[in-house]
Structures are given as structure tokens and as C-alpha cells.
Write a structure and sequence with these properties.
83 residues; mainly alpha; rod-shaped
Amino acid sequence: MAEDSRRVKELEAEMSQLMEDVERYRSAAEDALQQLDWCIGYLAGSQKGRVARVLGANRAHIRREYLRRDGYSSPTKAASRSD
């Protein structure tokens, strides 16, 4: 019984550490996507609308599939008229 209790505490501590790691990686991914957003906006403003749209689609896919977040509008919306 004491052994089971000790094992449960070990597993809870391990789970807590894993959740912290997940949040740290998620935060790093969000930061990287913010930098990508800046690049997309720059490209859209530099008359590189096609490249900006492709990068925007890739960003949306990453947010949906890997971060389990809804996509959000990007600077590529304005770029769609600049080709």
C-alpha cells in the first residue's frame, strides 16, 4: 500500500514535469509563429503575395494540426489582391 502511494506520487510528479515541458514547447512554437507572421506581413507588403499566402496556409496548418488552435486571419488576406 505504501509502495503504491509512493508510485502514484512519482507518477504525478513526472506528469507535472511533462505538462510543464509541453507548455514550454507550445510557448516556443507560438513565438516562432509570431515571427513567421511578421515575415508573412513583410512579404505581403513587398508585393510577394503568393509567397505570403503559401506561408500563411502553412502557418494555419501548423496552428490547427500541431498546436490544436484555431487558425486566425493573417496578413496574407490583403496580399491576395496584390498579385
